[in-house]
TrEMBL record:
Alphabetical list of Gene3D superfamilies matching this protein: NAD(P)-binding Rossmann-like Domain (3.40.50.720)
Protein name: Short-chain dehydrogenase
Natural source organism: Ensifer adhaerens (Sinorhizobium morelense)
Residues spanning the signal sequence: none
């Protein structure tokens, strides 16, 4: 699998899934523009240590070319300038990954709309929906100039799962359903140009914030199962990255146009594994184990 010569933009690549996606596109040889708000000299309100420069360096270390650009994807002018820069420097865009999120500190679990902080909820929707639409508006005209482009909307939960499950907050629920629907809608518009749009969800991802929550590190993540036994089904951020890299390299990827996909599902299709050599199938595990109140046991699910 190679993406050498391909130009990618991973919007929201400072940490978590965005960093894992950028890394794996780089490992496949792509030139990857990685965006976010936190740099070595300026932090976002998250007050997190991860930076876009670190992500770009990882991309380059793995064999691609990483280019860090500080962008607030709520600011249309900044996104427009980013795309103009990609056009000027590369003349094309082959892969757009909309991974902007930033809502972890804004949603409140198990609260109806009348109890949820309204300002936080509305800001969450702007971060999860407006950023994706703004980025698509400016970047897709460049992508469709060449056939074979790929747009990926990153979300939490497949369309099927989210249609049957309330995601514990009206704002979070709407945000994650919207990304699936956006991919479906963009697919209709992109198909005449020979481009493909999909949504994708990782499983229970071992992001930096999640590992900190469980007081663990990637190298010792199994320790977290002492706190939450079902964490046994978790996956690294690189797993969803490998899913997108495999999809981008597939000359027949148009067969997925408009579909809602998962990292575990694509692993079964393309044969890639997580960094530990396993293939965690989180969404099937959630239905068949967690929701059935069975003891935590990943046998047969990774």
């Amino acid at each position: 699998m190679t993406l050498r010569g391909k130009i990618a933009l991973v919007a929201g690549a400072t940490r978590g899934g965005g960093r894992g996606i950028a890394a794996e596109l780089g490992a496949a040889g792509a030139t990857v523009y990685v965006t976010g708000r936190t740099t070595k000299s300026q932090q976002s309100e998250y007050k997190r240590p991860e930076t876009i420069e670190e992500t770009a360096e990882l991309v380059s270390e793995l064999g691609g070319q990483g280019i860090a650009v500080q962008v607030d994807h709520l600011q249309s002018a900044q996104v427009k300038a980013l795309v103009e820069r990609i056009r000027r420097e590369q003349g094309r865009l082959d892969i757009l990954v909309n991974d902007v999120w930033g809502g972890e500190n804004l949603f409140e679990w198990n609260k109806p709309v009348w109890d949820h902080d309204l300002d936080n909820g509305l800001k969450l929707l702007r971060l999860a929906i407006d950023t994706h639409l703004i980025t698509a508006h400016h970047a897709l005209p460049l992508m469709i100039e060449n056939r074979g482009g790929l747009l990926v909307e990153v979300t939490d939960g497949t369309a099927e799962y989210n249609a049957e499950h309330y995601r514990l907050s009206p704002f979070y629920d709407l945000a994650k359903v919207a990304a699936n629907r956006m991919a479906w809608a963009h697919a209709k518009d992109l198909e005449p140009y020979g481009a493909t749009a999909v949504s994708i969800t990782p499983g229970w991802m071992r992001s930096e914030m999640m590992l900190e929550h469980f007081q663990a590190k990637e190298e010792t993540w199994q320790e977290a199962t002492k706190i939450q036994p079902h964490f046994v089904i978790s996956e690294s951020p690189r797993f969803v990255g490998r899913a997108i890299a495999a999809l981008a390299a597939d000359p027949q990827k148009a067969r997925w146009n408009g579909q809602s996909l998962s990292s575990g599902g694509l692993a079964q299709e393309y044969g890639f594994t997580d960094i530990d050599g396993s293939r965690p199938d989180c969404w099937r595990y959630m239905r068949e184990v967690m929701e059935q109140d069975k003891p935590a046991d990943a046998a047969g699910y990774r």
